[in-house]
Write a structure and sequence with these properties.
single chain; elongated; 225 residues; Rossmann fold; 7-stranded mixed sheet; alpha/beta
């Protein structure tokens, strides 16, 4: 059974999609998408040998070799125009790593119409990247599983302008204000306050002063939202 986290990612894959799952590890997500007749074809990309081998093994075990191709490659280098991939999923990494994977091979996104991204931390950098690169947020989900909070961002081509607040919190998530969302940001504010208290004891260098100002700004931003 797939985790709630990956099931949420899967729920945004359009029926009939050709999917590339980048950083696929065991290829659980592509296997699920094929078994449930959501994707017609999938590529599982992995840059590390061990996880790549797990993916190959899993695909074989499930008898899906005809529909899932596993490739050992860095990021989007796992896909080629002849694959006709139209949907990309990248899950279980930090936002900055996800952005660097996209940024490193922008030309390989030409035929792609949907990105489903699940950053473990720093979703903010994905929203910033999307805004600057002609992608708009179609939907966002925040969920909790095993005491961890995850965000899933669904992007399609389009223009959007987000405020600083919306970049940090996510406009859909902010509108919805779910219990998990509130919990996440209460926790963040607590962390920021803890850091503030600890640097109050420190000698005031320019760096400390800047950090203090940044934290106070973030707290005010989130509390005011
Ligand atoms: N996507 C799966 C999930 O969400 O459960 C696996 C997440 S796992 C924490 C991250 C995987 O991404 C690792 O297997 C790692 O080897 C792979 N990875 C990291 N950077 C990558 C890159 N540039 N290209 C392809 N895979 C990458």
């Amino acid at each position: 059974k797939l985790s709630k986290r990956l099931e949420t990612v899967a729920s945004f894959v359009p029926t009939g999609a050709v999917v590339a799952d980048i950083g696929s590890d065991h290829a659980y997500l592509p296997c699920y998408l094929i078994h449930h007749n959501i994707a017609t074809k999938a590529i599982a990309g992995e840059v590390v040998k061990g996880p790549y081998e797990s993916a190959v093994r899993q695909v074989k075990l499930e008898g899906l070799e005809e529909k899932i191709t596993v490739r050992l490659a860095d990021g989007l280098k796992a896909i080629d125009p002849s694959d006709h991939v139209n949907t990309i999923t990248i899950a279980g990494m930090g936002g900055p790593l996800i952005v660097s994977i996209l940024e490193n091979d922008l030309n390989r996104l030409k035929n792609v119409t949907r990105l489903i991204l699940q950053p473990n931390i720093h979703a903010k950098v994905i929203r910033e990247w999307a805004m600057q690169n002609g992608w708009a947020i179609l939907d966002e989900v925040i969920l909790e599983e095993d005491e961890k909070i995850y965000e899933v961002l669904v992007l399609q081509r389009g223009d959007m302008t987000l405020s600083e607040e919306q970049i940090l919190l996510g406009q859909h998530l902010l509108n919805e204000r779910s219990e998990v969302f509130v919990k996440k940001w209460i926790r963040e504010i607590e962390n920021w306050r803890r850091v503030l208290t600890s640097i109050e004891q420190a000698e005031v260098t320019q760096e400390i002063a800047a950090k203090r100002e940044e934290l106070q700004h973030l707290i005010a931003l989130v509390e005011g939202a």
